[in-house]
Specification:
Layout (H helix, E strand, L loop, with lengths): L2 E5 L2 E4 L4 E8 L7 E7 L6 E6 L6 E3 L7 E6 L4 E6 L8 E8 L4 H6 L7 E2 L3 E6 L1
């Protein structure tokens, strides 16, 4: 079992920035692929970004490409999502997810079925 905790959500005006962080607490010495998803009211959960366990592969949803950057601290299984040029459409609950068993390509592609553990979410609200 892996505990997943997100931090950094809040209220920001359009054009502003936020940085989310997520830490996965599992077996010591094990690296996990970790990703970000979000869910707006009345909408389904959508993929945002992911960084694989090796730190070398990342992927972004087209809607955030060029604005968001995902990075990781391998030693602590911590990932960050730097969100710049935020828009009202970015308003959502952001979830950190951890993959331990999912197929590599599925996880990299942002298929939620490839992720095994989920955080409780952190609210990001972008005002007009």
């Amino acid at each position: 079992q892996v505990q997943v905790v997100e931090n950094g959500g809040g209220l920001v005006q359009a054009g502003g920035s936020l940085r989310l962080s997520c830490t996965a607490s599992g077996r010591t010495g094990v690296r996990y692929s970790m990703g970000w998803f979000r869910q707006a009211p009345g909408k389904g959960r959508e993929f945002v970004a992911t960084v694989m366990w090796n730190g070398g592969d990342t992927n972004y949803a087209d809607s955030v490409k060029g604005r968001f950057t995902v990075s990781r601290d391998n030693a602590e299984n911590t990932v960050y999502l730097q969100m710049n040029s935020l828009e009202p459409d970015d308003t959502a609950v952001y979830y950190c997810a951890v993959s331990q068993y999912g197929p590599y390509q599925s996880v990299l592609a942002g298929d939620s079925r490839g992720y095994d553990y989920w955080g409780q979410g952190t609210q990001v609200t972008v005002s007009s």
